[in-house]
Design brief:
117 residues; 0% helix; mainly beta; 7-stranded mixed sheet; 4-stranded antiparallel sheet
């Protein structure tokens, strides 16, 4: 059974930092592209950052320079280090595992991040 379990969310003040983790099980983690997405109330889910199976990273313009994603294939875990957090970063953050040929996508259950004073 495939599971993606996010952790590390919570309440943080503006300017603060959080580190999210997503632990995978039941998949060949190293061959998957791993992504972080977020969804704020009343808004569509949006890309935050991705790290490909070969370690290349892509960031949304809104998170570039503040967020860093990385992966540890031995631990089957992907991380999202979030710095200089803003109230507009408040959302539920989701982890996604994706591969092509065959097209396969798995999602985690999400973790809440709230940035507020």
């Amino acid at each position: 059974q495939v599971q993606l379990v996010e952790s590390g969310g919570g309440l943080v003040q503006p300017g603060g930092s959080l580190r999210l983790s997503c632990a995978a099980s039941g998949i060949g983690f190293s061959i998957y592209n791993m992504g972080w997405f977020r969804q704020a109330p009343g808004k569509q889910r949006e890309l935050v950052a991705t790290v490909t199976s070969d370690g290349n990273t892509v960031y949304a313009d809104s998170t570039k320079g503040r967020f860093i994603t990385s992966r540890d294939n031995a631990k089957k875990t992907v991380y999202l280090q979030m710095n200089s957090l803003k109230p507009e970063d408040t959302a539920v953050y989701y982890c996604r595992a994706q591969r092509a040929r065959p097209t396969t996508v798995f999602w985690g259950q999400g973790t809440q991040v709230t940035v507020s004073s």
